[in-house]
Amino acid sequence: MKTLSKVFIALVFVIMYAPLAVLILFSFNSSKSTGVFSEFSFRWYAELFSSPETFLALRNTLILAASSAAIATVIGTGAAIGINAMKNKYVKGAISSVTNIPMMNPDIVTGISMMLLFVFIGGLLSVTEVLSFWTMLIAHVTFNLPYVILSVMPKFRQMDKHLPEAAMDLGCTPLQAFFKVELHSILPGIITGAVMAFTLSLDDFVISYFTAGSSFQTLPLMIYSMTKKEVTPDMYALSTIIIVTILALLILSNVLGAKGDKKATR
Amino acid sequence: MKQRSFMARICASPHIVWAIIFIVAPLLFVAYYAFTDQNGRFTFSNIAELSAHWETFLLSVCFSLIATAICLLIGYPLAYAISKAPAKRRSMLITLLMIPMWMNLLIRTYSLMAILDDGGFLNSLLGSIGIPEFHIVGTSGAVIFGMVYDFLPYMVMPIHSVLTKMDDRLSEAAFDLGCNRLEALLKVTLPMSLPGIISGVTMVFVPSISTFYISQKLGGGTIFLIGDTIEMQFQNPATYNVGAAISLVMMILILISVAVMNHFSEDSDDDGGIIL
Amino acid sequence: MERRSITVNSDFYCKIPLKVFFSFSKNVFVEKTSPSFIFMFDKEFGMNKNKSTDAASAHGDGTVIRIKSISKEFNGEQVLSEISLDIHDNEFVTLLGPSGCGKTTMLRIIAGFETPDKGDVYFGGQRINDLPPYKRELNTVFQKYALFPHLNVYENVAFGLRLRKKQDKLTEREIADRVKETLSLVNLSGFERRNVERLSGGQQQRVAIARALVNHPKVLLLDEPLSALDLKLRKDMQAELKNIQLKTGITFIFVTHDQEEALSMSDTVVVMAEGRIQQVGTPTDIYNEPINAFVADFIGESNIIDGVMLEDFSVRFAGHTFVCVDKGFKKNQRVDVVVRPEDVDVVAVDKGMVVGTVTSVVFKGVHYEMIVDIDNFKWMIQTTDYVSPGATVGLYIEPDAIHIMERSEYSGRFGDYSSFSDELDRLSNPDEEDGDEDGKDSSDDNQ
Questions:
Q1: Is A187 within 8 Å of chain B by CB?
Q2: Cβ-count burial of C53 within 10 angstroms (0-12 exposed, 13-18 middle, 19+ buried)?
Q3: Does a structural domain hold residue A20?
Q4: B165 Cβ partners below 8 Å, 6+ apart?
Q5: A95 at the B interface (CB within 8 A)?
Q6: Are C427 and C414 in contact, with CB atoms under 8 Å apart?
Q7: Phi, psi for residue A205 in degrees, rounded to 5
Q8: DSSP code, position C82
Q9: What's the pLDDT tens digit per position in B9-29?
Q10: The pTM is what?
């Protein structure tokens, strides 16, 4: 029984990681083949970095991820504060249901629904190229919001509800009580939410695909267009870089999170 | 004190405005486009045109149901085995499980294709030991395998989180009352992990039925799912209305099935912890 | 209603069974802090003289907080109805009652976290209904301490001072001195740099007290501050809190459901039930002269029997006419008679005033607790002599052990031990429903 379950776990993980490992391996292949590994080389990386398109896409992706995460974190934290203070169960329920729609809906529906909105508004304003960085930013903020709210809300529930009262009892105005006391308690949730929003935005393809114009390309969009054409291993190289980056981000957020937890229990 | 809670509630207003403009309004636009023609006139013709796509609908539903079932069959034992592992190994396994969830779906799907493709890694590996090359990409099996491969972690995570929260003494109590291992699993553990199963099923079924990338890559251009159909309609402004109609029907189908499934689990745990 | 109990008749103290008072106090004070115990005892007398003279107390007589006919409703449920109470300088007042009696709500109204629907709160003569909590010159020790987890002990205690730094022209030096002084008052010197979440329950409790006291409030509000501590620690903290109150002279308003805690610490006990004040008085007052069946039952153990007041000093109950010390009732008036279990002597059948059958005997350490059936009414009796169950015994009751009360809405609801068991006796053991009140108070803000 014990061995059986160990073998089972190992098998699943091997299958899960094998393709990624193969992909990383062949990104260092000197030949074009994806079947036979001939020689170790950085050829595809060199090729990748020689094209200015890659850097542009990388820059775009980071700008989009950072700005959408920042906006979503601010709006989402505000929303969590507000929803937490609401007493009416039904209003609260209605707001959270609407908020969660982008999480429940298939990405493709979220993507096309926003695209239709933008196209319609563009038509009204007779703007020809309505899909741009700004439409992508709005779309990314929208699908990031529920994740920020969902990571901040539980922190309010975990917080001793008497903390803000204690602060006011000692002379804080409500605003001071929030910044001096409550904010510290929900900060881990805000950070988690921000990191999550950043990563999701970095990673998103489907929603970007429908809301992006031709003027603004991100890495996932670039990967998509690369795989549409005949595939060259520079796409492997790009994927490897993204895999390593995301891995680093995950490890970083875990380390930060663990530190936060330690602090909280000390 | 009243003033304070009023101030706090004001903080939610940007979000509420945002949600109305960018969540609710777009969905209304989907409905609007679905029921109008290119010139903005009301029509049922888009909905009528759906009948041309019923086979695609059926195929998508079948594929995603099969993929969901396989995910459940693999995911539940996996979640169970992980939840029974010693704490330290458990957290490592969970991290390993979570990493693919954060990897770009395109890359994961693509890497799978790189392995399975004709002349890919698997075939050349098999060829080197004398097994003749065979065709994988382009079959239904490849598409379903792709769905399972991409979405399996979404099944395991919620089930695992329910199983670890469950009190071990419950199954001990079941043993104490005369259940054997299997009975304890069927009568206590399984029913109690239902909320996790339901949220896992939702999280696999919804992206499976709406995917277009997996079928494009692993279907080898021969298998056409509903996601592909929608994506195709939106390549050309002339067919936006039909695309909207298909999306609307798909969304309603999904919402109904999610609502029905959630009906079975009273415990709607709105934990954000499932994702990270 | 509560006025009546404040007015104490002069010969009352002559008949205090001292052992009763000691039995509640000795655990706490005698060993560790006997001087203050004696002081407290002195004060007890002093306070009462004071109160009986200023029955028509106006402001300026040492009243710090005056509560005038306050009512409060939560979601259609009346939590407080028409509460009036005066709280004096240097007084240790305890709001005592079972879960859901409104005591915590009352404290929160005084602190400013809730606004009364009706009525007024005065602080030092000023109406403070609309004054927000951060402008009130009082501080609160919260039930689960509510220490700020991101600050260390020093910063927690200095929190209030830092906020008033500008206004009070405090230097960092003065803040440090005051924090140090307050920490030593609560025996936490040397803990300044500690993380509050790594302290024990008792230490956290002290930090919470220090954090409130360092601001030199006129009034300190304490919301069941000891309920999270284990029994031994609770006893120590009771003594310490009482000491701190005596040293600082700050008015303490203390909320608890623990009657023993209330009796052993307070100058004045306010017994509450169902959103109303039942009785206000000194601990001895409340114990020996309960005003109705609820108070008699809630404070200590009581046999509460239906009786008829035949004339002054003569009451009939349990089929026998007893001599008592009460007077002033109408002839043949129906009354509630209270007899404490420790005041009944078990004697031979022929020497007894009434005769009953022992139905159960439980050994409690100091004494045996037995249930005696007299005409189908089950009495609880505490005695040091063992009697076997089933035996027939005579009971003898001294005149001053009999306390007569007017009948009230609580008549007949308490004081019969026919269904008595430790588990079922929830009203005198409300710890078991500890969570209830918490849930009620928070129900409005966590929905």
A1: no
A2: exposed
A3: no
A4: none
A5: yes
A6: yes
A7: -115, -50
A8: E
A9: 888 899 999 999 999 999 999
A10: 0.77
